[in-house]
Amino acid sequence: MFGYYLRLGFASIKKNYILSLLMVVAIALGIGASVSVVTVNYLMSSNPIPHKSDQLYYVQLDSWSPHEPAREPNDPPDQITWRDATNLMAAGAAFRQTASASSGAVIEPNDADVRPFMASIRLNFADFFAMFDTPFLYGSGWTDAEDQARRPVVVLSKEINDRVFGGENSVGRSIQIAATEFQVVGVMDTWQPVPKFYDVTTGAFNDTEDVYMPFYMKQELQLSNGGNTNCWKSPEGEGFEAFLNSECVNYQFWAELPSEADKNAYMTFLNGYVEQQKELGRFERPLNNRLSNVMEWLEYEEVVADDAQIMLWVAFMFLFVCLVNTVGLLLSKFSRKAPEIALRRAIGASKQDIFYQHIVETACIGLLGGVLGLVLSLAGLEGIKLLYGDFMQNLVKLDLTMVGFAFVLALISSILAGLYPTWRACAVAPAAQLKS
Amino acid sequence: MNLSYLELGPMWRALMRNKVGALLIAIQIAVTMTIVLNSISIVVERDKMMQRASGLDEQNTFYLTSTGYTSDFNAQNTVTEDLLAIRAIPGVVDAIQLNAIPISGGGWSMSLATEAGPDVEGTGTAVYMVDEHGLETLDLDLIAGRNFTANEIRWRQAAQPDWPETVIITEALALTIFDNVDAAVGQTVYIGNDEPMTIIGVIDQLQAPWVGWNNLEHSMLSPENMAFNSTRYLIRTEDGERDRLMPIVEEMLAARTSGRIIRNMDTLTATRDRSYRQHNAMIKILLTVIVCLTLITALGIVGLASFSVQKRIKQIGTKRALGASQASVMRYFMLENGMISTVGLVLGTGLTIGLNMLLVNWFNLTPLDWMYIPIGVISLLIVGQIAVLGPARRAANIAPATATRTL
Q: Which residue range is the domain that position B219 belongs to?
């Protein structure tokens, strides 16, 4: 019977093809708008490191001015000072930990054909690679001992390895960065967590850095501050060291704490550390330290843009209008078919048969709308990429989940839209219709 | 056309016989109105934001970064000679070294207070470090006081914490701190809690680097050149000369000194596009939504009205046979649509205000201007009338003889 209903459905769709087209296009537009906007929101709020996001904690210490909070109403600053970053690293109280910061320097390739260029730098400790499960193409990260010895070692991104070493295994070779000779210990494979959770201060969807080097290289080479630097008081004294040791915050700190007990122990440690610093005349505000796991941190930093949320609302309301539109049109269409339905009823079709027949017809319209909607959402995502440029490039990839979502959304919405008109069609009284 | 109010009663009762169809259209119109008006409000707000001037000669200004990377790089000499060389190029109006580019998104801010001390509340302002060519290059007009002189300009070393003795501020900043532009000149303000700076001039307008900042018009000029290895130059050219001069300046600088790279060369117009890109995108997306939605709703009205005309062919024929004019048949459908629209628009007014309150609450948007509501109501009424015109005209053309035929 299904095949027959399918044929009947298509015949009916063809009979009123302009109207059917209108319904299909309306559903497609609603689905297309919803799926593309949902995709952007879904990627913005996705978990960048699902298998351990609840074991990685971002550390906030309230080292701010006694006269005002860093952020209203009473939040600690979103980064920490050089002094605290290095002290927490020296204490090593967590299972794994890394302070991190961004910077930039010029790379001078040995190959005279490749011109010197500016590269972005991630400064971090050895644990960074193990904590964030960075994929390696060649070699690996450096060791704790190399961190402590302040060895000029470097991990290159795949892109930089391609550019400077033509994509060869460059482990063990040397590279000139910031007028200093570095030794390559590892080459990372493509790595782009979305959101770029480990440092969201200059944008949660930026590209990852070009090279990774030991944190203390900042001090050794006097590298500039990347990202945001916020100070509540001016550095005491002049020069780079004074600036490093000031109350200016520019560093992120992550701790890996596998269990709840570890987390509590680390919090106790942090509070103890701040109490100890208070004796040195720092941390004049009341105790206000925070540990946030990856998803809590992303939520706190509000990485999902307001505009994306507004668009989500608009898209769903848009879909609603499209569905109401379809309900109205189907209702009229089916009511026109009343004589035909009455005839079928009179010659023996049950109400169930009629219902089945019409729901198949509705589902056909829904599926057509869904397919067209999927195409439209691809176009929509392209449009979003075009309009937003770099900011959105990591956020407009349609994955299988979203394709499935589009189909389910299309099917459910068209069946919902078809349910009432179909029910009304079934309620036709055969006798009244056949009389005239 | 003599509109009889008696018509409205039977029309309403006829409508009530097909409540669901009418209600669906009304709902569609209501939600359409809600989305369209709130979207337009956002579009207008963003557009207004994008129209604000930066104060610079944007069409004829570009900038680039010079980064020295060798250990024997002499920043101070390089900057001095670079500026002389750039200013000597024909077609260049003037050029400066600048720590941050207006409306670019990245820069320095400080707090200025009228009294010294750590707990005095200050006013936030963007900081631009310029020499005596600053006013000419940035296209600023003095409205009070004077410009910096050449010997007021000092060299700032990397990580140097203190400030020069003089400062020029924007009119907006002067008004915020002193309520009066003329009173500002000669006053002392404190930067970084306790360092005094004397205001020697007030300029008309210069925007900060952050276009989303509340204090966008708060800027100060500090008289200094920077002995930094990595630094920016901002160049203003004569009308229409920008694109020709960009590669010339870039090549000249790259060739002048070895051990440095010239990078990130860009125009101020491109910077503006980038800074306002998300607003521009939002405007375009919302406009597309508005157009699609209005079209779908209008086509929905056409579809439903056509059906209702088809369904009533016999009645209409009968009516015509009994003497109703074509005009009165048309009027019937137009009025019916008007009635449904009115219900939808009343509902829509409520929904529009409700959604707007939510948006204002959650996303800090500006509340909807009340004028939008009557304009929206009238526009959507007109859209509905246009949509129903076709089906109504078809209804009017139904021949009276139809009444005598059975379908």
A: 70-258
